[in-house]
Amino acid sequence: MTEQILFACVDQCCFFKLSGELRYTNASGMDDLVERLFSAKIQCTELVVDLNQASFIDSTYIGLLAALARYAQQHRLAKPVLFCTVPAINELLLSLCFDQAFDLVQQSTDPDVDLTSVQAVPYSDQQKGQMILRAHEALIALNEQNKTQFQSVVDLLKQQLS
């Protein structure tokens, strides 16, 4: 089985290669990376995401990508670059207005960086719930159209987690 999350940070460029079925059930490693980015444990001035090997992506994972875009905006960085040649995933990203927050590039990649596998972090049900909530809040923060689509999910999660 190929690794789902590969990561490298070279010269402050953070490179994420995500593959396979990207679902909330296997998102804890990515969530941990995003959290380390926001807490400044990883120094990063440029973000690159490669989804060319992804076969499916759920709203939680998309929310984690939205969090990367928010990180770039908050730190006044260039838009993250997102590579994806999978038509269904590109369609989904465009429907959620990811073209406003990312430079979407529909071409394959061959990064000359040594990527490290990121393992899942053991999360309790409460931590999983918090991750799903944060991811969906990041999606809503991306634009108004997403708010209509995901606000009910966020409200329900807040209710269940309180």
The chain-level mean pLDDT equals 93
Major sheet characteristics: 6 strands, mixed
Number of helices: 5
N-to-C CA distance: 37 Å
Low-pLDDT runs of 5+ residues are none
The percentage helix is: 40-55%
Spatially, the strands of the biggest sheet line up as 5-4-3-2-1-6
Radius of gyration: 15 Å
Say how many strands there are.
6
User: Could you tell me the strand content as a percent range?
Assistant: 15-25%
Characterize the overall form: globular
Structure classification? alpha/beta
Helices and strands, in order, run as EEHEHEHEEHH
Based on the model shown, name its key terms:
single chain; 162 residues; alpha/beta; six-stranded mixed sheet; 5 helices; 6 strands; 22% strand
In short:
By secondary structure, the chain is an alpha/beta fold. It contains five helices and six strands, in the order E-E-H-E-H-E-H-E-E-H-H.
Walkthrough of the structure:
This protein has 5 helices and 6 strands; from the N terminus they run ββαβαβαββαα. The chain is α/β, with parallel strands linked by helices and 162 residues long. It has a 6-stranded mixed beta sheet. It is globular and about 45 Å long.
Write the layout of secondary structure elements.
Blueprint: E1 5-10, E2 13-22, H1 28-38, E3 46-57, H2 59-74, E4 81-83, H3 87-95, E5 103-105, E6 116-117, H4 125-142, H5 144-161
Helix pairs in contact: 1-2, 2-4, 4-5
